[in-house]
Amino acid sequence: MINPDRFLSDLHQLRSFGASGTGKGVVRPAYSDPDIAARCWLADRFADAGLQVEIDPMGNVFGLACAPSMLLGSHSDSQPEGGWLDGALGVISALEIARSCKESGGPAVSVVSFQDEEGRFGVTTGSAVWSGHLDQERADDLTDHSGITLREARATMSDMVTGPVNPSQFSGFIEMHIEQGPTLDTSGDIIGVVTGIVGIRDMKITFEGQQNHAGTTPMALRRDAFQAVSHFNMLLNDRLQNVVTPQTVWTIGHITLHPNASSIVPGRATFSMQWRDADADRLARMEEIIRSTADDVAQMNGMALSFGPMLGLEPVAMAQGLVDALSDAARNIVPDAWRKMPSGALHDATNLSRLMPVAMLFVPSIDGISHAFQEDTKEEHLVAGLRVLNHAVRSL
Questions:
Q1: pTM here?
Q2: Which of 26, 207, 316, 381 would be 228's cystine partner, CB 3.0–4.6 Å?
Q3: Residue 113 forms beta bridges with which residues?
Q4: pLDDT digit string (tens) for 122-159?
Q5: Are 207 and 304 in contact (CB under 8 A)?
Q6: 206, exposed or middle or buried, with CB in 10 Å at 0-12, 13-18, 19+?
Q7: How far apart are CA 393 and CA 219, in angstroms?
Q8: Would you call 262 exposed, middle or buried from its count of C-beta atoms within 10 A (0-12, 13-18, 19+)?
């Protein structure tokens, strides 16, 4: 039988790696010292549970049961200012179920903590490489915002690597996660059975203008790269209106100005452009509008324009058999407090859908907050999610 106290204890212990000192928040970016320490701890916990520990060249940490087995898990890296449950919940719930199955002679369950799900170097990078969606050589050339390459970062844990892990030994993948949105918290439901995951596109855009003196350069003569970004953002919001739905989202989340000084007109601006939707055709149409709008802005402002590599994943529907098992479990554990719902956030399950049947299970996020130190979920809801997941896995 599952042990809720042991599960919660492990979850809080994982939070100690990179604890922010602000609430329950964590600072555990991929390949940072706290991230690597957490992976070492997880490897020890997997081994204590009787699982065979394997760590692949990306730093994905597996705890393997005998093959074939169901694979459960998520990721344990965090955003630069992250919450304690994002990813961690899926890993620790997987550990508890695998451990309890070992103890009770239940089905074979393996566990994984994928690396760089939060995208320090790309989009769900660890599972993207493991699933074959992203070639390792191409991935190694990806850089973070400070210019460090993935090749350099993953070298910091090269001594932990045991070798590749073959996906063919797994019969399917289920990922439990906090919702990271307000739907369940608002409705009062405890469980969300995910029906599908949105697709995502992500690329960098650079406007190159003219660096100049901030006090002597007349406004009419400036080729201010930041003003170009502002112009682009305003135009884009207008031009997308007839294409998008209320569920479509797009974000400029990171911007770098050069030379980034208060008395200099910025000559270069590089920014992230990310958009998400459940329809692949709409994602493609949005890309056309984004590129054409950037080109128009560059011409209107006398700028050079360049685009970085396009990263992204297609929308994915969950495997019906696994959805049915999770729905039956939710109906049994929380009969009047569950719903089916889509995921607006991206998850490792998207990449794994290329290899095996996948499904996801959500528990509420208090006030819909995630990717912030304030992220939290009631412990009784965490345990309810564990019970639903356990029921589904054993029924399979």
A1: 0.85
A2: 207
A3: 61, 74
A4: 889 999 999 999 999 999 999 999 999 999 999 999 99
A5: yes
A6: buried
A7: 64
A8: exposed
